[in-house]
Amino acid sequence: MHKPYKAKDHFFKKAKSEGLRARSAFKIEEIAKRHSLFRKGQAVLDLGAAPGGFLQIISDAVGPAGTVVGVDLAAIRSFNRPSVKTAVLDVLAADFEAQLLTLYGGAYDCVVSDLAPKTTGIKSTDEARSLALAKVALNVARKRLKPGGSYVAKLFMGGDFEGFRNEVRTSFDDVKVVRPEATRGQSMEVYLVGLRLKAALPGSGASSSG
Ligand SMILES: C[S@@+](CC[C@H](N)C(=O)[O-])C[C@H]1O[C@@H](n2cnc3c(N)ncnc32)[C@H](O)[C@@H]1O
To answer: Tens of pLDDT along 31-84?
Structure first.
């Protein structure tokens, strides 16, 4: 009994004892380990990055020669690491992609999205909003990833999950669904992992910079 709460306590305490900003850090750690996502010197974009749990894991993985860009509606407390750039941005804003380019003009090895809408409690609304955020991340991944790059996005199961998975399959060689151990027991969230972007799309600009 109370299994979800035991899991919550375990990862919450572990995050605190390891100096991590959020228990979600264990989710990206597990996904990255399972799919060998990050290497030293890589460039990674983290969408929905506050308070910075994912950023800690990713910046350690890519090291000081790498680049990690983290954006969120909420301000992210500074990491004091030159390799980590953060900004307050709304991924749904009309000028989002232009703003993102000003932070880092190069192509990314991986685009990660832990974007989550404020939940309303209305299942269909929450699922649709979650899907809309994962779609924004997919569009950015298609434009800004290097060929062979990878995409990780959280979304709520339900709604048009299958349709979206098929959409991701059109751009990546392989698509996995991961529910990390640190996910809360009742949560409907999973991560879609797109491995090896098939090719830069014409006009994407991803291969011409950085
Ligand atoms: C689960 S939290 C991310 C936790 C983060 N991965 C970490 O490890 O610390 C989801 C984030 O998505 C952000 N978010 C939701 N909608 C957004 C939007 N339109 N633009 C930017 N960020 C958004 C929220 O502000 C929230 O910080």
So the answer is: 999 999 999 999 999 999 999 999 999 999 999 999 999 999 999 999 999 999
Q: Which residues line ligand 1 (CB under 6 A)?
A: 21-22, 24-25, 48-54, 72-74, 90-92, 114-117
Distances (CA, A) of 134 to 12, 30, 81, 93, 113: 26, 20, 28, 15, 7
Index of the ligand 1 atom closest to the CA of residue 91: 20
Which one, of 68, 66, 71, lies nearest residue 97 by Cα?
71
Predicted structure pTM score: 0.91
For ligand 1, atom 22: residue with the closest CA: 72
Q: Which atom of ligand 1 is nearest to the CA of 74?
A: 25
How far is it, in rounded angstroms, from Cα 207 to Cα 201?
A: 9
The catalytic site residues sit at 154
Percent of the chain predicted with pLDDT > 70: 90
Domains in the chain with CATH codes = 3-184 (3.40.50.150)
